[in-house]
Amino acid sequence: MTLEWVPLTAFRRFLKETLQINNVKNTFCLMNNAVLQLQTTYPNPHDWLAIKPEERLSFHGGDRSELWYVIFWIWDSGYCEGEDHEANSRRIDIIKYISTRGRVNLADFPVKLGLLTSAETEFIRNKDVSKKGLLNKLAIHIVSVMKPLEQFTEEDILLADLMRPNDRRYNAKSLKDLLYELGHSNLPGKRRQRTHFDECCDHSKWGRVSEDYRQHLKRSDALDYYMRKAGAALLKFYAWLDKRGEPDASLLEYEDYLELFDYFSLNEEGDKFSSKYIGNSLSFIKAFLDWGNGLNSFFPNHLDWPNDLYSGIHREAQSETYAGDGLAFDDPEFPSLMKKAIESCQPVDEIEALCRAFWLVIASSPVRKTYLLNLQVDDCVLPLPNAPAALGLYSPYSGIEKAKHRNGQFPILDSSGIRALNFLRKRADEHAFRPMWNERAEATYVHLFQLKEFPWLLNEKQIYMFFDKIAESIGHKDKKGKAHGYRHYLITHIAIETGNSALARLAAGHENDTMLNRYLRSNLSRKALLFATMKKYQDGEIAGRFIWRIFEALADDQMEPDELIKALGSEEITLDEFFAKFGLPAPTGVGKCLIQGACIFEAKCFSCHHYAIRKSEAAQAFRTLARLTKEMWNMMQCSRDFTTQNSKAAGLMTQIALLGDMIRHFGYSEDQIQMEIIKQI
């Protein structure tokens, strides 16, 4: 690019016609001296640009400097025009130059140069209520780029961080907020919290390899959760290397990794971490070392990882995960208590009103919290495909669902959730929010929990602060579970009420039964399912040793209620439907065999824990009891040396006693049983 200084006559015309200076003669006279010094020292712009921005000399004529002339030269020559890498480098140079000139006032320049409208200027002045010089900082940025705000690219926006590094009042994030408010962008600024991975990338020795690994994970579409956990494990690994004085991980051997395993196993007080924490942390380290093996001098050429010990830790971690309750509530009364307290809460501000609505929806639908917080306003509630009378939460954006797929219908099970959603939709209409870009959905739309200002969208910190406040007000501070606890709770009750795992899985949004079964295996879920089943026995609707299968499941924390027990506990399946689906005719002629697989008990049904009988079969039970009693009587009469020690006699007596107990369980008295036996005989 060939560059020349602009003639001073053109600069004077600029002062008069464009900047509309009142006393042009005096102003130009002072600036003329400064510009002549500039042109004498740097005969052409190439000489001036060859010097680092912060080292370029300043020239003064009275209280005026060369700055206005340089800005005019940039504007007139088109020095900052273009969208290529070189043009961006030129803009960086100019913004660094202006930022090192001390206190300058360029607030009026953008409007007079046609780069900012009067309406935009007025909006910015009104926004800057604390008088922090927002307009002037923006003006410096605009004249450095020489573009109107609506033409700012991502690279132009990032230049804000060069003006004054770590300035909390004016930076790329605050500029994004401003562009969104002015309608020039659909993406407000994000205040990204510093992570453990950031600290790894800032490490004095291993920052470069950490950044390379982070970029690898991003290219692999690693979830944010994985990135956070991997960063924490990696930082701890670096601390261990530093503690040992290792230059890198290239010399680590089998015995060293054993020490590393011990290091990750204990906290600072010497107490052992959970197997799940140890196993997960070591898996992140192994993945890092596997990635870099042979790729970088930081890593060993051969990874001598203790696979034997690691496999054992991994199995323990899996067992602990499988046996644990996860995020399920540990108190069966808590979910309903909290829901009532949340409904009764009178919000003190808009944030609390949104939090209240959030929790009422969460307590009414088995939806994930991230899905709900990112839900769009339009068509967020639609009739369920297979049940038009029922409503469910819906989004066309697969990215807001976990693992970026959509498998559930998320039914709304309670009217309080419908009312909360109506409140949220009405609020969005009244505020007329502008559509906002959502990174998860990769789409622009008005959000159900959108805000008028930063942070622009209700976040997890706000909803959990509200939850803790309500929990403390009812005496349940620091309660386990929260949003995901309600998900466990509602899915459990869907399984109980329908007796259908497929429906529960659909409502949960699970791709297969594996994760659903983990939900239903939580202590609260197991007991809810099993006690719902036992209620049929307590109500006298069913009898038989099948109840022992329920007792076994209750007593064994590792045993999961099977499909048969879940179906029996359902409120939507009748006993007739249950026995028709699961029961086989018992060899005794009364009751049903509920064995799942081959029978190894032959005809010993009354003492078998696969046997069940309904109250509606009482008449048939009396006939069977009478037949058994008659057989017993005949045996006693026909035998010359009858004894109860006889195996056949003992078996008959046991069957009579067991069947009699079942009939008594249905509410019949001894006299009624005797009368029925005599009648049948």
Q: Sheet bearing the most strands, described?
A: 4 strands, antiparallel
How much strand?
A: under 5%
Shape: elongated
What value does the average pLDDT take? 79
Q: Summarize this, please?
A:
The chain is mainly alpha-helical and 681 residues long.
Write the layout of secondary structure elements.
Blueprint: H1 8-18, H2 24-41, H3 45-49, E1 60-61, E2 64-65, H4 67-77, H5 85-99, H6 109-112, H7 118-127, H8 134-145, H9 154-158, H10 160-163, H11 172-181, H12 196-201, H13 207-219, H14 224-244, H15 254-265, H16 275-292, H17 307-323, H18 334-344, H19 350-362, H20 369-373, E3 381-384, E4 387-393, H21 415-431, E5 436-438, E6 443-445, H22 460-473, H23 482-498, H24 501-508, H25 513-520, H26 523-538, E7 542-543, H27 547-555, H28 563-569, H29 575-582, E8 584-585, E9 592-593, E10 611-614, H30 618-638, H31 647-665, H32 670-680
Antiparallel strand pairs: 1-2, 3-4, 5-6, 7-10, 8-9, 9-10
Helix pairs in contact: 1-2, 5-8, 14-16, 16-17, 19-21, 19-22, 23-24, 23-26, 26-27, 26-28, 30-31, 30-32
Describe this structure in words.
There is one protein chain. The chain is mainly alpha-helical and 681 residues long. Helices cover 55% and strands 5% of the residues. The protein has 32 helices and ten strands. The protein has a four-stranded antiparallel β-sheet with strand order 7-10-9-8, with helices on both faces. It is elongated, with a radius of gyration of 38 Å.
